[in-house]
Amino acid sequence: xxxxxxxxxxxxxxxxxxxxxxxxxxxxxxxxxxxxxxxxxxxxxxxxxxxxxxxxxxxxxxxxxxxxxxxxxxxxxxxxxxxxxxxxxxxxxxxxxxxxxxxxxxxxxxxxxxxxxxxxxxxxxxxxxxxxxxxxxxxxxxxxxxxxxxxxxxxxxxxxxxxxxxxxxxxxxxxxxxxxxxxxxxxxxxxxxxxxxxxxxxxxxxxxxxxxxxxxxxxxxxxxxxxxxxxxxxxxxxxxxxxxxxxxxxxxxxxxxxxxxxxxxxxxxxxxxxxxxxxxxxxxxxxxxxxxxxxxxxxxxxxxxxxxxxxxxxxxxxxxxxxxxxxxxxxxxxxxxxxxxxxxxxxxxxxxxxxxxxxxxxxxxxxxxxxxxxxxxxxxxxxxxxxxxxxxxxxxxxxxxxxxxxxxxxxxxxxxxxxxxxxxxxxxxxxxxxxxxxxxxxxxxxxxxxxxxxxxxxxxxxxxxxxxxxxxxxx
Length: 475
Hints:
mainly beta; six-stranded antiparallel beta sheet; Immunoglobulin-like; disordered N terminus; about 475 residues; 4 domains; five-stranded antiparallel beta sheet
């Protein structure tokens, strides 16, 4: 009996030692106190460290080199060694430094934005600007370009999901990975406004550390930034405020942050023409780094920022004309605002226009005309205009119908307008490019005045006329 008891005691001691060694082997990623901590156990396998580096959003880091004590890749990526205890090495990185938003250069001209479009599930709402407000940072951008959502705690729960308008509020996708301090999920997002919630063991909860909440259903709101306003110098200034057309010139809401040799503020800013100024200790100034300026209605000079895609408008001929201009829905059809420059063969101008679908016309010596080189048209206010899609994400195609005189496209994206968008024939098929918001789109072709569903698309649904609409899903 004594011998048996001794064997049991020895076996138990060996198990405790094994468990102790296992517990000490702690390679993990912890998020808290507004920083990210990377803890590496130098006894870990290369596979374990590779998996950890992937979670941390590190690219190009060599696990084998790190396990040999070469931390160059970590240091280049902005990580600082915080502690070294035995086999455990810890690196820290502030969450606020993970937002890598490139500075976009000012452009020359673009359009105004409709502020009333609330967007749709899976698509950033069409707001003019946005700034995040966290009690503790729980959402941040990784160097890889992914956005990481963090749900602290809930370690006793079995399952956590991330659901939002970026995945159509799915209850199946967005599975979060469990860490030592909570749950994480990485999502690829474009700049814009997003609503989200967490689903913990079937229960919907919002982000308790996020102070931005939607009025309609208590969803948490996150803005993925795309622009940084910078003002160099003014080291002795006490307070600098940013105000512009995007926030209705509110001189209290956007306070600049001191950073190194100047001041800066990151935010989400919608494509479009934005006028802005800085208020330095009560005195308005324009942006000294931006040469584009214009006098405002209040008599003060504003800096002008334009964000969007470059579009070249060309009109061949008309070399005897005194002036040629262009106007369209991208500038609210304002006459006299956008002159073309005379070239050897005609006239041209490069504009910055946000992604979308637009009508336009040239104005030659005050005579309005459609673009003679553009076979695609649309109707606005009962008037036929030339049609252009900026940064299109889908091409509608209709094969056959070689003898048709006209083919048009109408759908939920243009309120099923009878004229729709004109398709052009290339000898084999009719085509038109369109910029569509993600989600479900309904459409039909109109061939010589006759409405028809898309014969090349098997997806369709019935409508109130029992004639059906073709269905298209945009990711």
